[in-house]
Design brief:
Shape: globular
Mean pLDDT: 86
Structural class: mainly beta
Strand content: over 45%
Distance between the termini: 38 Å
Number of helices: 2
Oligomer: single chain
Radius of gyration: 27 Å
CATH architecture of one domain: Sandwich
Helix content: under 10%
CATH class of one domain: Mainly Beta
Low-confidence stretches: 1-37, 117-127, 250-254, 283-290, 294-301
CATH superfamily of one domain: Carboxypeptidase-like, regulatory domain
Amino acid sequence: MKALSTGMMLVINGLILSYQTEAQTVPSQSSTIDSSKTLLLRGRVSELVNNKTIPLVGATAVWAGTSWGTVTDTDGHFQLPIHTNSKQLVISYVGYRSDTLLITNPTTHLNVTLRSERTLQEVTVSGAPGQIDRINPIQTEFINQRALAKAACCNLSESFETNASVSVSYSDAVTGAKQIQFLGLGGQYVQTNVENIPNIRGLATTFGLNYIPGTWITSIDVGKGAGSVVNGYESMSGQMNVELQKPDRNAGPDNQKLFLNGYVNSFGRVEGNINWSKPLANKRNNYNDLRPGQKDRSISDPKWSMGVLGHVSTLRTEIDQNKDGFRDLPLYTQVNVINRYKYNGEKYMAQFGVKALYEDRDGGQLSSVGNARYRFLNTTKRLELFSKTAKLYLDKPYKGLGLILNGVHHEQSARFGFAPYEGRQQTFYANLIYQSIIGNTNNAFKAGLSYLLDDYSEHYKTIQTARTESVPGAFVEYTYTYPEKLTLVLGGRLDFHNLFGTQLTPRAHLKYNPSQHITLRASAGRGFRAANPFAENFGYLVSSRAVYLNQPLQFESSWNYGISLTNDFQVLGKKASLVLDYHRTDFQNQLIVDIEHPGELYFYNLAEAGGKARSFANSFQAELNVQPARRFEVKAAYRLFDVEQSMGSPFGEERLLPKMMISRERVLLNAGYALPFDKWKFDATLQWNGPRRIPYLREGYVHTSYQNMPVDMAPSFYNLNAQLSRAFRSGWEIYLGGENLTGFRQLNPIVAANDPFGPRFDAGSQVWGPITGRMVYAGFRFKPQP
């Protein structure tokens, strides 16, 4: 039995069931197995918390006395070929007592509940809620539902409060748009997928983090550095995959699954969520065949299931804490829904569905200012259709063929004072993936074809941009595995871009385990993308700046290199882990967003400056996780950025400057404690954000030269978030929490707020800290118990 490399079950479990970064294992040629047909043992591994079962992700199932095993997916499920020489199955998970089962009937679906290794009197989760994937050769942090529940997690942008790698902040003081920073770069350089479909990109870059409600999410995989070539060419600093609630798992009473969530905060924001799914009946009894007194019953076919994810949120309270006459947060209403269907067959699996979103935003000056006030208005309408199909090979579980199809229609209209904006995006995406092995499972490969069609149209004031990208591509990825020691992944893409020509994208990943507790990783790879200057810099448009887009924008391209070390050890007999990583991103070309000139906004290419121009980002991070006591988890992390880019090429100058709005240093401390059975849970996160460069916009300053330009730095600040939750056996859970409990806020984020139609008005380029002060929230979660 040999271990199949990370993502080998991507087609079967990734395209159809869920994204799975853990490795699957299948029999090698030398294994004891009936070659005529491979029987699969299926089951689910979970824990018991408050009388409800919670799936354990990454639990190991191994046939005793062999190396023949697998790990559970994001819903706790596994499947494993039957071994003719072993009848005992060992189920294990870090922090839990292993369970050995005697398998006499391999067709039985197993439901295994593990108990804590520290006590038999209570059930607790002793595994870290956010952890580095031990098997994936790409350094990937897995954020599960337990980690997401540490905060209110109302949407994806609020899902990283306890994460040291990803930081989130407002892009300006008016629109309410949020942006992430990862490895010292903006979120547009992270390929963000939803169930392996590229999602937050293009025009959705502006508000896309708000379009994925937190209660829809089951897990988030955050990969650093170059991603897999299977998922595309746009991963430049990292790759993030978000898994949503599935329609066919964890059914409750009456074979249905229901989850409700309600939320309200002290600013007046109100949210409601519903997740509902059930199997579909495909046969009904004939009334004429019923015996006297017999009830009519539908026969549910487990092959078909359907699910609905619904979300409504709104804010209708005007807030102006610094009394500058502007709303600190825009008024908004969002309605968001997904309806999906899923088919689980023996030879084929498929799912398809539709997503629909409507959102309107109204920011700017307070209503009391009158009709002549400065207003920011934005309306977004988004419709998405998707399907995934896969052909299964039960006798060859290492083999698979899958197809992903996705279509998006995105319309966005906005107004910045008197300046109008109109944007439209139509996207079609297809990805065909075939996977198999060469000889045995030590040598595996994926190969396939992809096609991406993007049609963009943006109109801001008198500037109109439009482009159509048609990109057919082909890829291959080879994986060599030396069990329990080494994994090497070599991949390459060849994409034929109608605007940028033929592009080669090579990537390599290496994972080496010198010992059982130490993992070393290294990666290198290229990525490229086409920038959308307006959508990716919406906040800078909330100003009186004149926009200059005087040269055709070229595609952005970069190389990323990374190394990391993960060490699991013990401190005074307590479990601990240390993660060190360093990544560097070197740009061959980048869209330079120049706000150094007061009253002016320039977009230009880094490559226009010639060979001397540079843009790079260095990122170092150290993270220590310790469990000093039972049910007590502590995380401490330090992050250092060195991000610089050459400025001034259109003006005949070249000066290497620190990139705007990037804190050079950041420190994060997180502590979480739970009582037995998770009856009460408490979590707190303290962040220190170091100084960062901001544009020099002091009154009277006139930009004359980049060489003589003064450098202005924003101060450092602390931020504290905390949450307390109480769970009940009936399935109810209530929570109370607060954000920015230190109360720190930037007093004057808007330049010339008293004259919004004057030449100095700027609400986008001076925002470096929290705009609002202390916020308190409360909510409930409800899931009926089986």
